[in-house]
Design brief:
Blueprint: H1 14-26, H2 34-38, H3 42-47, H4 61-68, H5 73-89, E1 97-104, E2 107-108, E3 117-119, E4 124-127, E5 130-134, E6 140-144, H6 153-170, E7 175-180, H7 187-194, E8 199-205, H8 209-214, H9 216-229, E9 233-241, E10 250-259, E11 262-270, H10 277-285, H11 289-301, H12 312-336
Parallel strand pairs: 1-7, 7-8
Antiparallel strand pairs: 1-5, 2-4, 3-4, 5-6, 8-11, 9-10, 10-11
Length: 348
């Protein structure tokens, strides 16, 4: 991060400001206004390398706000790379496989923030930040603030291509799996992954008339079983399907579940040809539910939806600050606060 200030008049270095802001967010003080109340707190002063009693006070809210609004797009790009480099450095050696989980969420806003749009699904003006985690470990890869609408195929391909290519340069032999729910089933992304060595995908697939027709016989059979035995029945089925926008037929996994609550049919599309349908759906795809828990930690506990700056760049930088707090707490949780029974616990 470049510091344009005159060094003769600087009381708080950029390192001091980053440490102060990130540690305060990690401790539940997400607003820049909190800097005024905590600038003389002995614990935060020690974290910034100052004496708890006699050390100089930390930065105030106006100083922190000026810092947040001074970040350029070039700096934001370097910070995004720094997050990925930190993720790579968290492994002692190249892993055999990683699962790159993509998911976005809504950050509702109530002002005139740049690039905040009305989203009909959420019924609010919002941003749609993209969260990328490693699905097996919960490690954060990066977060990208997006305008309040879904990305199109070309936009998502640009992100996926840049990230996967960067990770591949770091880990030439690691198997990379792209995973997401149904609104990440972009033909452009699937076609590009087809051209990459040792890269695979598994994403949800929205049902339609043709897909429902393909499993109609199986659905009727499961309904008969439920009526005969009175208990929930579940069946997995694999077949090939080509949507009108797809360049080639692809393997689809259908989960057909019949219970007293009715019939539940879900679809998944993948390029994994040698994994059994049940294992692919239950073990590989359904594990992406953990990604939503990581976002919950990031958004609900660390309050990363406080996108109250007017400038878009400033709000992206704020998202990075909250992401740094997530990396700090996740590292503390997994490397220091280990528990023998390996039970998952949340940040709160």
């Amino acid at each position: 991060v470049h510091d344009p200030r005159d060094a003769r008049y600087v009381k708080h270095t950029l390192t001091d400001l980053l440490i102060q802001r990130i540690t305060q967010i990690a401790c539940g003080y997400e607003d820049a206004n909190d800097c005024n109340d905590l600038r003389n707190d002995p614990v935060f002063k020690m974290l910034a390398g100052r004496f708890p009693e006699l050390g100089e006070a930390l930065a105030s809210q106006p100083t922190m706000s000026r810092f947040e609004n001074s970040i350029s797009r070039t700096t934001l790009y370097r910070l995004a790379k720094a997050f990925v480099d930190t993720f790579v450095a968290s492994y002692e050696k190249a892993p055999e496989m990683i699962v790159v989980d993509f998911d976005d969420t809504n950050n509702n806003v109530h002002g005139g923030q740049q690039l905040s749009f009305f989203n009909g699904y959420y019924g609010e003006k919002c941003f749609m930040p993209l969260h990328v985690y490693e699905g097996l470990s919960g490690k954060l890869v990066t977060t990208i603030l997006k305008p309040g609408k879904r990305s199109n195929g070309k936009q998502m391909l640009a992100i996926v291509k840049r990230l996967i290519t960067y990770l591949r340069a770091k880990w030439p032999k690691t198997r990379l799996v792209f995973r997401g729910d149904s609104h990440f089933t972009y033909p452009e992304v699937m076609d590009w992954i087809d051209t990459q060595e040792n890269v695979m995908f598994v994403t949800g697939l929205t049902g339609n008339v043709r897909l429902q027709e393909a499993v109609k016989t199986l659905v009727e059979h499961e309904k008969q079983l439920f009526e005969s035995y009175g208990r929930k029945t579940t069946r997995f089925h694999s077949f090939y399907y080509q949507a009108g926008s797809w360049s080639t037929p692809r393997r689809v996994i259908a989960k057909i579940e019949v219970s007293e609550k009715g019939t539940n049919i879900r679809f998944v599309v993948t390029d994994m040809e040698h994994v059994r349908a049940r294992a692919l759906y239950r073990v590989i795809y359904c594990a992406r539910g953990e990604d939503e828990l990581y976002i919950k930690d990031h958004k609900r506990y660390l309050k990363s939806d406080r996108s109250s700056c007017q400038k878009f760049n400033a709000n992206q930088f704020r998202l990075f600050l909250h992401s740094a707090a997530y990396v700090l707490l996740h590292t503390l949780k997994t490397n220091i606060l280990r528990h023998p029974d390996k039970r998952r616990f949340f940040l709160e």
